[in-house]
């Protein structure tokens, strides 16, 4: 009897969760496709976004993501390698870097927005621009990316490292050809997590990259990210709901496409090197 | 050859050390800027002894120099606690269902759905809440934009995370425990409640704390549906304003002390999240030790 009640309860939980999530997803897909056309992807917004498209906004979004990734990925991977391969476990500098990374990984994104506004926009004089927005995003994704990669690198079997050293490989060769390819899944996971967070971000961009929905002429121009556009359409523009849903659909699709792309790129890159090794 | 190799190694070490140094510097810079922007605000209130008012005064009139953050702190906590209280049983229940009851095929599609929804931007949940949920609540209990709407939107946002992390920590419970308890003739619900769940406790609680930090730090999804009136959270259908939303709403025109007060509230949020993650660290370590000794 108790067993049956328990099973029914669990089933009810699962059904409730599935139906609620499907409700949200189907709303986004149905209302999004209703307003979507290929024109919508490329045209400039007209009448505060009620009509027209999201062309310039899409461009700004991709620029912001590109700046964030260019800054955060090499730096993050370097720090992860240093933390897992070179910093000897209990060095004080390494452990305090680790703790700071953990704290910063949990800091709310609006706080990064405050920092970006104070440092990049005002102190460095970049103003409301794609550059200050992208750099703020880079600061935001850095801790998560480092921690995920570091965990993956640490999980690589030590026998592989010893084997490589015994074969007379230098440490740099061993890292490049053995350890990094072995940690591939974690690097992909970190990359996907970072892309997802950076593309979805709104709060950190409100006061760093700004609201302007024109096509950005340079990296020092203000640009509106897709997520900010959705927020603005639904909160400040009456009658913008259709366009907001279509933008939401584009944003969700964009994240899925970027994730697949990242996965296949990293796979391709590392597979080629594993074959040589 | 050998010396060439070790030279490359040395260069790499220096390069990586430089990167680590730059990152550490960056992290210090973030802290430093938040502190320095909020400093004058804290220092002034420390000097005239009115700093405690931040935490109990009800009056948030920044343009008249009254900075009572109590209603917003309470609202932030109430909304977060509400969302976690809803999402924890639902997420954990569906994780157990997914792991022990569902057929492989339905488990796979359930997992896919959860993964897709875990990646959906929070602003999309906010949009859905604003256009679907708020009108629904309005037709029942106006004004609609309320604490309830914020709690439901946050619940949907953190549900996939809680379900996925719980499912993966349930999956990592050693098979022998399950086999042993089956051999003892324990019923399924007893097995799950008394054997599996305690064994997976550490993983589940760290997932929940992660979700709590996300809910506490969420800005726009809450801002879009909560109504944003500065008042104590007195009822589910009353509009509230949370700390993060306050920063987003007022940053655009804040000057001087007002701006510093927003940085101070950002710092306060950071401290709250930091306490949470410290707690999570503590819980998982205590659990590990307990298991080693037990």
Whole-number mean pLDDT of chain A: 88
**Strand arrangement in the largest pleated sheet of chain A:** 1-2
Rg value of chain B:
24 Å
Which segments of chain B are poorly predicted (pLDDT under 50) over 5 or more consecutive residues?
Answer: none
Assembly form of the protein: heterodimer
List the helices and strands and how they pair.
The complex is a heterodimer of chains A (277) and B (294).
Chain A: H1 2-35, H2 38-42, E1 45-46, E2 51-52, H3 55-86, H4 92-106, H5 109-123, H6 130-154, H7 158-166, H8 171-182, H9 184-200, H10 203-206, H11 226-236, H12 241-276
Antiparallel strand pairs in A: 1-2
Helix pairs in contact in A: 1-12, 3-6, 3-9, 4-6, 5-6, 6-9, 7-8, 8-12, 9-12, 11-12
Chain B: H1 2-47, H2 53-56, E1 60-61, E2 66-67, H3 70-101, H4 104-118, H5 122-140, H6 147-171, H7 175-183, H8 188-199, H9 201-217, H10 220-225, H11 243-250, H12 256-293
Antiparallel strand pairs in B: 1-2
Notes on the protein architecture:
The complex is a heterodimer of chains A (277) and B (294). Chain A is mainly α and 277 residues long. Chain A is built from 12 helices and 2 strands; from the N terminus they run H-H-E-E-H-H-H-H-H-H-H-H-H-H. Chain A has helices at residues 2-35, 38-42, 55-86, 92-106, 109-123, 130-154, 158-166, 171-182, 184-200, 203-206, 226-236, 241-276; strands spanning 45-46, 51-52. Chain A has a two-stranded antiparallel sheet with strand order 1-2. In chain A, a hairpin with a 4-residue loop joins strand 1 and strand 2. In chain A, helix 3 (55-86) runs antiparallel to helix 9 and helix 4 packs across helix 6. Chain A is globular, with a radius of gyration of 22 Å. Chain A starts with a helix and ends with a helix. The model of chain A has no long low-confidence stretch (mean pLDDT 88). The mean pLDDT of chain B is 86. In chain B, a hairpin with a 4-residue loop joins strand 1 (60-61) and strand 2 (66-67). Chain B has 12 helices and 2 strands. In chain B, helix 1 crosses helix 12 and helix 3 runs parallel beside helix 6 (147-171). Chain B has 294 residues and is mostly helical. Chain B has a two-stranded antiparallel sheet. Chain B is 79% helix and 1% strand. The termini of chain B are far apart. Classes of the chains: A mainly alpha (277), B mainly alpha (294). At the A-B interface, helix 1, helix 3, helix 4, helix 5 and helix 6 of A face helix 1, helix 3, helix 4, helix 5 and helix 6 of B.
